[in-house]
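Ticket #4471: complex job returned nothing on first submit. Input attached below:
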Amino acid sequence: MELYELTVHQLVNLLDKGEINPREIVDSFLNRIQAVESKVKAFLTLDEDRAREEANQACRQAGGLLRGIPYGLKDLFCTRGMRTTCASRMLEDFVPPYDATVVNRLSQAGGVLVGKLNMDEFAMGSSTEHSAFFATHNPWDLQRVPGGSSGGSAAAVAAGEVPFSLGSDTGGSIRQPASFCGVVGLRPTYGRVSRWGVVAFASSLDQVGVLSKDVRDSALVMNLIAGYDPLDSTSVNLEVPDYTVFLDKGIKGMKIAYPREHFGPGIQEDVKETVSEALKWFEENGAVVEEVSLPHSEYALPAYYLVATAEASTNLARFDGVRFGLRDEGAENIIELFSQSRANGFGAEVKRRIMLGTYALSSGYYDAYYLKALKVRRLIWEDFQKVFGDYDLIVSPTTPTTAFKLGEKLGDPLTEYMTDILTVPVNMAGLPGISIPCGFAGGLPVGMQIIGKAFAEGTILQAAHAFEQGKGLRNQKPPLGVN
Amino acid sequence: MSSDYEVVVGLEVHAELKTESKIFCGCSTAFGAEPNTQVCPICAGFPGMLPVLNRQVVELAIRTGLALNCEIADYCKFDRKNYFYPDLPKAYQNSQYDLPICKQGYLEIDADGHRKKVRINRAHMEEDAGKLVHQGSITTSAYTLVDLNRSGVPLLEIVSEPDLRSPGEARAYMEKLRAILLFTGVSDGKMEEGSLRCDANVSVRPRGEKALGTRAEIKNLNSFRALEKAIEYEAGRQIAALEDGEKLVQETRTWDEEKQVTRSMRSKEEANDYRYFPDPDLPPLRISREWVEEVRASLPEMPDQAQQRLVSDYGLPEYDAGLLTLTPDHLNFFDQAVALCQDAKAVSNWMMGDMTRLLNQNNMEISACRFTPAQLARMLQLIAAGTISGKMAKSIFEEMFDSGEDPERIIKEKGMAQISNEDELGKIIEEIIQAHPGVVQDYHSGKEKAFGFFVGQVMKATRGQANPAIVNRLLKERLNREGA
Amino acid sequence: MALSLAEVEHVALLARLTLSENEKELFAQQLGAILEYVDKLKELPTDDIEPLSHILPIYNVFREDHCRPSPPREETMANAPLVEDGQYRVPRII
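Support reply: We reran it on our side without changes. The output follows.
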């Protein structure tokens, strides 16, 4: 096996035993990137020299769990001295003078940043086709999307370009691409991981998470990035457990619920079957599996598109051409400066959402739209509270379909929004959720979503790991037509 | 102003809170730094940045609310107030919309000869924007420069009810409010530095009418004087317009200090829709009653209390006591001087008279005064002891103000000690009487002026340093001894 | 139902986005469709429901009033498109 085919924990093992050195690891991944990147197109910025230099340093110094282990970052995470574009023309040349908190933590652990990964512009989208620069291709079928908005993060892991990456999840942007690309994607509880230095899309919904080849890696990286950050007022001051401790506890006696609304008519049949098979596995292996209802499920998506776009419309207002970002040089007065710079800098999907969000907050509409959505949000949150009163976990398909074709959903915004229908309720309730590979449908990966109580990432990882080990579905490699 | 109408004024005041660091980041709030040197990615609204609330801002807001007799909310939050302007880095201002930290308070003013309670609707926390410096002119191409040092400085916005009825009342309100802000240590209250800003909402209505007229919001008031003048002008403008049959429109107007008029700022753009909503980045505040009581217990003496103390302890007139409690610096100076010389009336007179005059002439704050309360106290003791006359004291005081020297030193150096030695004075009087027998005659024949003549001569001979009371007595004795 | 052009222009002005005529028409139609979809929320009676604006039950998150040195001006202004005399330069404000 090539080094790039291994997981983080396998690499750590080899490093600990002294069988490999950090430089060899980085070289293997950089070579892999050279081989497949022209097909996958996951990276917006690649810095091989810096990676090699950091790997060399890691060879010289001891310490750090991730010493020499490379990773990628969704280009939403600010990196000091390295271009951070958010896949937008608005920030095409923006070089932040600071690192996001999570970047600091990975760096301190010895992680080697290889580059910045493609995404939907400002995290708005479900396909990565809304990147201002180019689309990323799903390693399982290069004609299909990797999902979004963390499409580059998922594709890079699936293609073996990096062993893990960080993404962000506001309405499903980690879980949905993980599902489409056959990798593990964990979105933690809101407040579990610091958002400082992560460009904001929707402040009450955004959360930083991990994409990896298997569940153990997810636990390892969570150990490094989770935890209170005094720079983020919404990060919770709660102790971070060692998530790896949960991994081998098994699922005997666990009470698992599956919401009937998430197995309804809008879901692709073979996706439903694959996830139902997974539920059977849980039952056969000692878990109690029962059907429940999340009665307000169908209202989660419309409420989400009001809350998220309203917050986004104000979070993106700072892009005005004055202190950073694209500027319309020809503007003759201040209104032109703002309006032209933003018109030139933002793509269509971003503009659409800014317009929608502005409308939802505007005078005369605030009550009917934004305020109404916040009330519905409470109803959704209460639905989950009720179920979690009796159950440990909730399981559903991650997405209604497997990966769709590039260009397929670009005509009508609403059809693309619908792909988030199963993931969005989790964000609205601020809960943690993972997507793990649970099989294939028509040759394409199917993801199973496991949702937990607030701050119960350990329980999620416990069940996910048991399933992964039991079904042998970890670390699968797409053919990619290379080798 | 036509007595058929009354003017109705409400004031919106912004006070910069005296914290070391900004409201959401650790940048300094110090005034006068080089542009953009007290700025970080947080207060410059960079991508990915998040706010963390400065606890001292809340503490100072509670303190102010208590000093203004407000209810302190037990739950409040920050909202985003959205609009685009180059001095607003996030394109939204963090403020408090529907749940302000303080509500329903009041303060008392003395104006136009009466004491009056002015109600305060609310006080809330918010952040300041940066500063714009306009360049160029109509002829050269105009542009603007942005300095973000001030962006993120914490403010308290204090909104009064429209209870004020004259420019005098408005000024009294501002003076009392500033005094309260100074006494509580909450703000510097300097209008010329921008740490205290005031916008006036002015409307007029026929006397007896309950409904409020259409109001204009007046901005760009940079001094208490400008406030008074602007209210005067605007009330007149509105009344004239109404009497002409014009309909007034609710608008924002700016005070033109040069031309002493208000001008409309109505732009072609429609009014701002601020789209307020609760800021998800800032968790709400729960203000415990324990915290409120802690703050209440730590409140220093307030201006009104101090004023009452001066009246009851020293028998000073309310008006005088009011002036002495305009700022904590004034009160401290007074209290310290009185503690040393026990003559409150004298201290009061000198402070309100010559001291105020000299400070104003020299554009100085009392804190810059070169002499100390102790030195003033000693000067007053010297007057009381007769070592110097009241008249001498005036020039000694001026010298003390200029140099900060001890009064004793000045007296010595200038040879200004009052002559009270009776032998010495007796000799001089004797000489003068001998030299003017004719005037002695005049005195004895009843001419009052003659006495004054002799006093004048004694003063001349002693270069004004003779103790007048002693001179009068000795002169009378001598003259009466002479004649018969 | 599509939004009117006037409504689209009003929102675009609030959001400071210059839109082409084509964009205005497209957004009028697309936003209209999305708003129709979200109107679904009207089906739910929510008069007695408290809005959920802060998802976490946390309050009073503070920092102490300590001053720390600001980063060097050149560093913070390195990404600025137009600077003069250490300040950001913008065209005239109407």
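The domain at 5-42 of chain C is CATH 1.10.20.60 (Histone, subunit A). Closing as resolved unless it happens again.
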